[in-house]
Amino acid sequence: MVLPIKTFIFSPKREIIGTTLREEAKLVLPISNAALSQPSRQDNLHESLMAMISDGRWHVGQRLPAERLLCEEFSVSRNTLRSVLKQLEAKGVVTIRRGSGCYLAETDKEDTPAETPENEAAPVLMEKLEAAYLFLPSVFANAARVISAHDIARLEEVTGLIGRAILDKNWPGLREKSQQFFSIIAGSLDNRIVHDVTCEICASSSFLFPKFSAFAEEDRKKMFADFVLVLKAIKARDPDLSRQTIKVKISNVAYALAKLRGIPTSPVIAADQQANPPP
After folding, report:
1. pLDDT tens per residue, range 175-203
2. Over the range 136-164, which residues count as b (16 or more CB within 10 Å of their CB) and which as e?
3. Host domain of residue 89
4. CATH no. for residue 81?
C-alpha cells in the first residue's frame, strides 16, 4: 500500500557536506496534494492518449481520428494536439504522414519487451547503476553551478508530479517524470552527448525496474525522498552537496535492487560507501 504523499518525506539522521538532510528534505512541493503543480494540458493529453493506446483503442497501423475530432474529444487546441502528437512520433508511438493523418506505429519503442530494463538480468541492471554512480556525480556537481532559474522551476514541478504519480500508483507516469528529472539537470550543461548518456544511464537507475510497487515500502520512501534531496542541493547551487546526494540516491536504488533480486551490490558502490560513508 502506498502511503499518502506527505509521508514520503523522510529525514535521515546523517549530514552531507555539512548540510543536515533532515533540513534539506523539508520541501513544500511534495508534502501535500495541494502543493503539487497542476499538470499542463499537454501532459494530460499525452497521458490520456498513451492510456488509450495501451488499452487497445486503436490497432497497429490504424489511423487515429481526425485532428478536429480529437480536439473536440479532449477540449484542447489544435496546437496543443499537434505538439503532443509530435512528442509521440519522436518516441516511435505514432507515425505522422503529411496529407494523410496520424497512424499508430508498428512498434512502441518504450514498451518493446526485449528492450525494457524490467526484462534485463539483474546483474546487468546493477552494472548500469554502477555506471550511473561513476558518471552522474560530476554531471550533477557541474549542473548545480550553471542551471538556470527556469530549469530549477521545472525541476520543482517535475518533483511534484513524481509525488503525484506515486500517490496515484501511476507507474508509467512515474517512469516518465523521473527520466525528465534527470534530463533537465543534464540538459543544463548544454552538451548533447552528456545529456544523451545521462538519459540512457538513468533509464535503469530510476524506476524502470522492476515495477516500482515491487520495492519494499521503506525503499520506495527513500527513493522518493532522494529526489527531494537532490532537488534541494541543485536549488542551493551547491556542487558538493549535489555530488553527494546523487551518489546517495543511486546507492539506495542499488541496495534496494540487490535486496529485491537477491544479488550482490555493485562492488564499486559498496567499496566507496564503506570508504566514504555520509557523515
Report:
1. 888 888 999 999 999 998 998 888 877 76
2. bbebbbbbbeebeeebbebbbbbbbbbbb
3. 41-104
4. 1.10.10.10
